[in-house]
Amino acid sequence: MTRTCTILGIESSCDDTAAAVVRQSGGGPEILSSIIHGQTDLHADFGGVVPEIAARAHVEKLDVCVTQALSAAQLTLKDIDAVAVTAGPGLIGGVVSGVMLAKGICAATGLPLIGVNHLAGHALTPRLTDQVPYPYLMLLVSGGHCQFLLVKAHDDYTRIGGTIDDAPGEAFDKTARILGLPQPGGPSVQRAAETGNPKRFDLPRPMIREQSGNMSFSGLKTAMIRARDAVIAENDGLTVQDQSDLSAGFQTAVADIIDKKSRWALTQYMALNPSQSTFAVAGGVAANTEIRARLTALCAELDIAFVAPPLVLCTDNAAMIAYVGVERFAAGQFDGMSLSARPRWPLDTTAAPMLGSGKKGAKA
Ligand code: KG4
Ligand code: ZN
Q1: Spelled out in words, what is the top-level CATH class assigned to the domain 136-312?
Q2: What is the pLDDT of residues 142-200, one digit of tens each?
Q3: Number of the ligand 1 atom closest to the C-alpha atom of 172
Q4: Which residues surround ligand 2, an ion (CB under 5 A)?
Q5: CATH 3.30.70.20 fits 5-130+315-330, yes or no
Q6: Which atom of ligand 1 sits closest to the CA of residue 167?
Q7: Atom 22 of ligand 1: nearest residue by CA position
Q8: Ligand 1 pocket residue status of 317, Cβ below 6 Å
C-alpha cells in the first residue's frame, strides 16, 4: 500500500480520550502525533470506570485532544485526508461523544468520515508498528476482551477462541481491588508480583487441559478472594508480602493459561501455511512483562516471529484508530453521516457468541 494519506484518529470508547495523526507514505505508516488524556484519577474512588463520568470527561477533553494532536503534528485540518473515529464497541456515552465530534469536523470541512471498530484498532497495531503481513495470529487481551484472531485483512477476521467469561484485564483489576492495590489493576499487580512468590498459593488454571483456544478467568478470581480471605482469617490482615505473593500467584496463573492456549491457537494458524508467520499481541494486558516474556519464549521455541507493540500502543490510543483509517482509506471504505455508535460490535460477525459469554451477552 503506497498511497499517501494523512488521517486524524479519535478514540473515546472507555476511559482514555485520545486523538492522533498518522501518515501513510511509500515508506510505511508514521505516527505524527498521539495525544492521550487518561481519566484514572476521575474514577479512582469508584473501583472501576463510571460510564457517566467517563462520557462527560470525553466531552470536555475531545476537542482539546484534537487541537493538540494537530498542533503536535504541525498540521491543520486542511492537511488531513479523512477523520477516523471509534464507533464501537465500548461505553456508549463515550463512543457517541467521539462520533459526534468527528461528524462535526467532517460536516464543517467536507472531509470523509471513517467509523472504526476499536478492536480492529488493537488488532492492526502490529501493522502500524512493524508492517506485519497478513495473515497473522493476534491475541487481543484487554480490560474488556480476550480473543485469538486470525487477521487476514483489515476487514477479515476469524475468531478461533477467547474467554467464555471475564477478560484477563478485568481479573487483574478485580485482583488489585481485593488486595487493596490501586487501579488500574494490571500495572499495580505486576509491580507487587515482582517481589512475590508465585508458588505460595495453589491457584486454579481453569480449562487449561481443554484442547481449544477458549479460556476462563472467573474461577481464578473467586479463588483469589478465597485465598485472600484465608490469609486474613489466619493473620488478621494482609501484609505487603501477602499482597506480593497473591499477585505473583495470580499473574503466573494467567500467564500459564495464555501460554497454553496460545500454543493451541498457533497450531491452527500454522495450518494456514503463512509465508511469514507472526504472532502478535495487543490490548492493555499485552503490556504485562511476565506474559510478554512467556510468549516471547514460546515463539522462539516454535520459530515464529513475535510482535508486541510498545506499551503505549498496547493500551488505548488514537494512533491505532487513525491507522485503521489508513487501511480503510486505501480501500475506499467510508461512512456517511448516518454512522452510528455501537456498544457491541464483534470483529468476526460470523462466529457464534462465546459459550456463557457473560451477563450482558456476547460483546465481541
Ligand atoms: O486495552 P485497554 O487499555 O482498554 C480496554 O480494555 O480496551 O486495557 C486496559 C486493561 C486494564 O484492565 C488494565 O488493568 C490492563 O489492561 N493492564 C494490564 C497491564 N497494564 C494494563 N494488565 C496486566 N499487566 C499490565 N502491565
Ligand atoms: Zn482497548
Answers
A1: alpha beta
A2: 888 899 999 999 999 999 999 999 999 999 999 999 999 998 899 999 999 999 999 99
A3: 14
A4: 142, 316
A5: no
A6: 12
A7: 186
A8: no
Residues of the chain with CATH 3.30.420.40: 5-130+315-330, 136-312
Q: What is the mean pLDDT of residues 306-331?
A: 95
Residue 170 in grid coordinates: 478485568
Pocket test for ligand 1, best of 285, 288, 347 (most atoms within 8 A of CB): 285
Quick: pLDDT tens for 194-241: 999 999 999 999 999 999 999 999 999 999 999 999 999 999 999 999
HSE (CB half, 13 Å, CA atoms) of 248?
16
Q: From the alpha carbon of 90, which atom of ligand 1 is closest?
A: 7
Atom index in ligand 1 nearest the CA of residue 283 equals 1
Query: What percentage of the chain has pLDDT greater than the value 70?
Result: 96
**If you take atom 3 of ligand 1, which residue's CA is the nearest one?**
315
Q: Has residue 133 got a pLDDT over 80? A: yes
Give the pLDDT of residue 311: 87
